[in-house]
Amino acid sequence: MPRHTGFLKAGGQPVAPGRSRTLVSEGCDVLLINPPYPRRFGGGIVPPIGLCYLAAALRRIGVVPQILDLAVALPEYRFADGEKTVQLVRTYLRRYRRNPPKLIGVGPVVTATLRAVRQIVTACRTEVASKVIVGGPLCSVPGISAVARDYLGVDAYVAGDGESPISEVWKVVASSTDFVADIPGVGLPGGKEPPPHRELDL
Ligand code: B12
After folding, report:
1. Which domains does the chain show, CATH number per domain?
2. Cβ–Cβ < 8 Å for 111, 98
């Protein structure tokens, strides 16, 4: 098993060190970004299972996903490392300039990743015109709609399980420039907060 470099192929298989440039030049439809977080004492870094689930769901409908794992890229992350986070995302996205992903998903949003998620979203906005959505446990908490609008500045958020919602969001993004979302589990910034989506077939 190659060492986990921070770049995961869809399904979670790590990309061997030195091969990430090759993978990046291939581009992707949907880029999923795992935010860095300050590890608890004795805590570890493991592949982002939730994002791997999303990648698998997207692959099922013929979409090419890619995961950028910033928790691995910044294993000793502290809240003061915001600038490093921003630079990593901007450097990564610059390689996509000619063929940017249509959709970027950032998360999981938990209290400990909220600030990094904001920095990542800002970095994405600077480099590409892709739609940016977030998801994860904190997106089911009341008040997230205002946070999504006033703090994160995203196009939408997903409350609850993300597999079907992100697949439906992809279909909208791929087929039109309007970002309407009458999709279960998907909330628009400043709009009504949806009940968390639950996948029935897991
Ligand atoms: C296993 C686990 C871990 C593992 C593995 C996490 C991983 N990399 O996958 C480890 C030990 C590494 C870990 C670390 C941390 N964890 Co943790 N973890 C869990 C636990 C027990 C299960 C998470 C899980 O694997 N769920 C299964 C997967 C499939 O679901 P999921 O990750 O939630 O993803 C789904 C949806 O949330 C959504 N989704 C997630 N991300 C995104 C992104 C987008 C764009 C979209 C559209 C959807 C989406 O779609 C996914 C598929 O349905 C939860 C508690 C729980 N029951 O949820 C706590 C929990 C999420 N962790 C928590 C915390 C605090 C942390 C740490 C900050 C701790 C630390 N300081 O080290 C870090 C943060 C890491 C991170 N980036 O999330 C808290 C968050 C609480 C909060 N206040 O927000 C929880 C809720 C536990 C708790 N009650 O305290 N964690």
Report:
1. 7-187 (3.40.50.280)
2. no
pTM: 0.90
Rounded to 5°, angle at Cα 125 from 4 and 16: 15
The burial of 140, by beta-carbon neighbours within 10 Å (0-12 exposed, 13-18 middle, 19 or more buried), is given as buried
Ligand 1 closest atom vs CA 105: 45
- Ligand 1 centre to CA of 107 (Å) is 9
Q: What is the pLDDT of residues 8-50, one digit of tens each?
A: 544 445 544 444 433 344 689 999 999 999 998 888 888 999 9
Angle (CA) 94-98-104 rounded to 5° is 65
Distance of alpha carbon 115 from alpha carbon 119, whole angstroms = 6
30 forms beta bridges with 65, 103
